[in-house]
């Protein structure tokens, strides 16, 4: 309890002192200073702006700009609007009606008539072209089908002819002549050349190789160079 009092009481006294100093500063320093600034700076500046800026601008707007605006509207804008309206009603609208009645409408009717005739002609040509192609297809289809069957039959017949005249004789010749000849050659190779080569390698080549190696060792020719 005592340590709390030791800490809290000085802080409270310091806070009260600061509040008192703030009140005294606001009452006897800041408030007189604010009044002095307002009296010596803000009020003269506001009076100067009102007298030399706001009032002259207000007088200029009321006495000069407003009459000029009313005169400009009365003697320039309103006559110009009346003139434009008269031109639009008396010249542009009748001219537009004349252009539409005697130029655009006949041109649109003529263009629609030309497009109708062209579309009718194109539709007529396309219809008769479709009928002609359909008739030509119905006429040519039996011939095309017969020609396709003829090509298939010819291809099959050519295959049979080639098989019986070329493939079968070649296969027979290979089976009867080539295979026995190659087998005889292989048998003769195994019976003559292979034993002779084995005898030559064992009886001649290996001894000669061993003798040459012995001679080179004896002469010191097989030593590796540094």
Task: Walk me through the structure.
The chain is mainly alpha-helical. 96% of the residues lie in helices and 0% in strands. It is built from one helix and no strands. The chain has one helix at residues 2-219. The chain is flat and about 140 Å long. The mean pLDDT is 83.
Question: Which regions contain 5 or more consecutive residues with pLDDT less than 50?
Answer: none
Q: For the record, give the distance between the C-alpha atoms at the N and C termini, rounded to a whole number.
A: 103 Å
**Proportion of residues in β-strands:** under 5%
Overall 3D form: flat
Largest sheet: none
Helical proportion, percent range: over 70%
Return the average pLDDT rounded to an integer.
83
Alpha-beta content class: mainly alpha
C-alpha-based Rg, rounded? 64 Å
- Total number of beta strands: 0
Task: Give the count of helical stretches.
Answer: 1
SSE pattern: H
